[in-house]
Amino acid sequence: MPKDGWKRRFEDPIITPDGETLRTLRDAIKYLGRTVAKAEYGHEAVTTASTILTQSAEGGPAWMFMARMATLKAIHRHDPPPPFNPDFKEPHWGKRPLKRDQ
After folding, report:
1. I need a labelling partner for 13 at 20 to 30 A (CA). Which of 1, 73, 75, 95 fits?
2. Does the global pTM surpass 0.70?
3. Are strands 9-15 and 21-24 parallel, antiparallel or unpaired?
């Protein structure tokens, strides 16, 4: 087990919807334990986050990024995905000027 364990810090702190800042693995697992209802403990995002947070406390630095992503996914598990907007950006391909038109 690494010497830091649950005290390992995220590279970028997680700001929760209620304004709390999660800086360490311990903060993240405590927050999830406090905010997730018991009926949702079996939710896929919650179980994945708890597993990866535990692996991150026991494993190497590569797990920290995945722990951050899994925690964010568990926190925002009920948010709908953003709507797809095909007109958001012009594609880079299309009408290019032809040599004869210059």
Report:
1. 1
2. yes
3. antiparallel
Which sequence spans correspond to the domains of the chain?
Answer: 7-75
**Tokens at 79, concatenated:** 């948010």
Output the 3-class SS for the chain: CCCCHHHCEEEEEEECCCCCEEEEHHHHHHHHHHHCCHHHCCCHHHHHHHHHHHHHHHCCCHHHHHHHHHHHHHHCCCCCCCCCCCCCCCCCCCCCCCHHHC
> What is the mean pLDDT of the segment spanning 53-82?
89
pLDDT at residue 101, as a whole number: 77
Residues facing residue 24 across a β-bridge? 9
